[in-house]
Amino acid sequence: MKDEVQAAIRKMKTGKATGSDGISVELIEALGDYGVDKVTTLLNEIYDTGQIPTDMSRSKETRSDRMRASPHYQPYEPCH
C-alpha cells in the first residue's frame, strides 16, 4: 500500500488551501518517507478495523453550508 500512498501524494495538487486539520500537501511531501509511512499506517489501521478515528470523522462546516445559511442564498435551478 505504501506505493499507492506515494503515487496518490504525487498526484495531489500543491498550492491549495489546507483542510480543517491544517495539513498541506507540501507538508506531507516535505516529510518524505516518514510522512508516507505515517499515512500508510493510518490508512491500514482504518482498513483493518473498519473504523475512522473520531478526530477524522467529525463533521466540518463546508463553504456550501455557510452559503445556504446566508439570507441571500438561492438554490441553483437549471433552465428547462
UniProtKB/TrEMBL annotation:
GO terms for molecular function: endonuclease activity. Residues 57-68 have a biased composition (Basic and acidic residues). Residues 52-80 are annotated as: Disordered. It comes from the Eukaryota. Keywords: Endonuclease, Hydrolase, Nuclease. This is Endonuclease-reverse transcriptase. It comes from Plakobranchus ocellatus.
